[in-house]
Amino acid sequence: MKDKKFLSTTELADILGISRIAVYKKIKKGQIKAKKIGHDFVINRSDLSSVFGKELTQGEKSKIEKGVKKIVKEYGETLRLLGLE
Fold it and tell me: Which domain holds residue 73?
């Protein structure tokens, strides 16, 4: 899924934790930028930052990366075992 350029309305609904109808309503209101293909809409992955409200700054990205590294260092074995289940 990560290598896809576009998301369907269903995929975006799953990511946002809302219904597909709610995604359609947001598209109609202009809150989500989408392209109509046939009878359905697709959302460009590059437009997702506008869906979530903002883009991360470099500082925020660094904080997240630092936090992930810390978690992996401290809980790496536990995470590995959970991945096996």
Answer: 55-85
